[in-house]
Amino acid sequence: MSNKETDEKELKLPWSNKQPWWLRLLIHIGLIVLAGLLLLWGSMFFLKIYTRHGKAIETPDIIGLSQVEASEMLGRSNLNMEVVDSVYVEGQTPGIILDTTPKAGSRIKPHRTIFVTVNTMNVKSIKIPEFEELSERSVEMMLKGAGFKNVTIEYVPGPHHLLVLHLKDSTGRYLSAGERIPYNTHLIMEVSSAEEYETAMMDSLQNSSLDLPLDTPIEEPSGENWF
Q1: What pTM, to 2 d.p., does this model score?
Q2: pLDDT tens per residue across span 207-224
Q3: Same domain (yes/no): 67, 106
Q4: Which of 26, 53, 136, 209 has the maximum number of C-beta atoms within 10 A of its C-beta?
Q5: How far apart are alpha carbons 28 and 25 in whole angstroms?
Q6: Could you read off the pLDDT of 27-74 as tens digits, one per residue?
Q7: Is 97 exposed, middle or buried (0-12, 13-18, 19+ CB in 10 A)?
Q8: Which secondary structure element, helix H or strand E, spans residue 21, and what is its range?
Q9: Last residue of a domain, which of 72, 93, 119?
């Protein structure tokens, strides 16, 4: 084969075949990396368009608002509200928003739902524990441990010292064990006092003796006197 034919054959070979093998390898790696970057960029671009990332809004802070106020505020941001739980928190206004999911400041899409926890509108009620003929101290501890905040003691005469006889509210209505009443009910424990019982008994005896006449007249026997 002449030199001229050899030169013509080399000219017909692909350009990459004329390069060293290591250079061709680098070129292939570079093309793969470039293709990967283009694919990643394209995916992020279309994902951004699909999710409308540019239209995300910040969740308003509605903690402490009433349900009506919170719903109106969320409505102005094209958001919905759903009450998913209610708890009782002492000292907080009934019906206010206590917690939200997602939290205030989170970025979400319009027309999404904000799930809220509210403070219950009803005052917490507690069941009255057993109390009859138990000691004053144990019943007082049970009532306060159950959650009753306002418990007072009223001593009444009784043969057994410091036993709880009755439980009543501030209106004088007597209460029973197992009954559920508001936690802030003023409870009055009627506790027996042997000292007052003895005093009452002594006063009663003294009053009885005072009721007797001091001089009792002697009645003359009826009929004739034989002497």
Answers
A1: 0.48
A2: 665 555 555 554 555 555
A3: yes
A4: 136
A5: 5
A6: 888 888 888 888 888 777 767 665 555 578 899 999 999 999 999 999
A7: buried
A8: helix 21-51
A9: 119
